[in-house]
Amino acid sequence: DVPRTALFSTPVHAPYKVDMALTYGCNNTCAHCYNEPDRYEMASLRREDWFRIIDKLHDVGVPHLILTGGEATLHPDLPAIIRYADNLGHIVGLNTNGRRIAHQPYMETLADAGLNHVQVTLGSSRPDVHDQIMSGERQGARSFGQTVRGIQNAVASRVHVITNTTLMRANMGHVEEIVDFLYDLGIRTFAMNGMIYSGGGFAHPSAILEEEMPALLIRVRDHAAELGMRFLWYTPTEYCRMSPVELEIGAKRCNAGEYSLCIEPNGDVLPCQSYYVSAGNILRDPWESIWNSHLFRTFRDREQDPRWAGLPEKCWECPDLPLCGGGCRIEREARDGHRVASGGGCAGCSSGSCETNATGFIPTAHMTRAEVRGGGEMPARIPLHNIPISPPDAQARKQANP
What we know:
disordered C terminus; alpha/beta; nine-stranded mixed β-sheet; TIM Barrel; 15 helices
């Protein structure tokens, strides 16, 4: 018999993926942006400091890095950072609004540096709706054409490409049209998420009510299936309120502080990109003190001691807790009238942080509840932190530091 393990049950000593927010600056002004306004001007570290961070993540066994922001393509050292990480053997991804990679030579530069995959944010298939979503208060700004050219350039390159769309009232009426549009652009895998409850999304009027979401997701799921496309749903939810397993869009659980984390432009380490409480600074503090901090343990140990981890009483004996994990902590706290630091919501929901589970396995859309709950139903996967990554050597560092 093939050894099997339950989802989200593999203990880890380091996350599978780290979001590196190189800058909080952005050339879009989305009203629903999950970043807090007081972070927009945060200075970014020097290139050499980002190299030190990559070294540290390499040494503790993190295989996958996502370069994000803000808008990561605004960072002048992005190609060098990609090259450095690639030379050390990391999988390197980019989250972007696509505007700068609309310049084909720049996209080629990133691909040549070693970029493995890119996720482009698309607000809508309709230019006016996309521009309205992405411009926020700066009405009249036009980004749709650049974003579409960016997607086309990425598809034409050798990197893997997906898109992500935040579902909101402005685009919910034409989701099938969005899927068709992506298909025509050559996209075969796309993601969507709900409103992220931090920054501008905390009380955004375009947020879709949770009870409205299932019917919308079924429309997307079924239309994607008709076209042979893969649909990824990023947002973790409380299964007692909305179960992605019952909707047949795969098991989802918040992986913050466990299988993923975020490093801010100044080196501070967050459980996820919009939970603005730091567990330490990656350049100043030992990894063990960050990883074993009380903050991170409340995320990792919520199943073992849900009461201590701050989960509501309804979760304590719930059979779905191993899969659900209590949903998104910031969404729950925002719903209950609390805000962590200055925010609320989960940026992991738009970066793919919640997509991959504890074994590195991504449940398929049509798995049953029994098939994703474990107890011997799921094939085992080699934990990603056990994938050998050769230690950095002087030659690799020299090649990665042009």
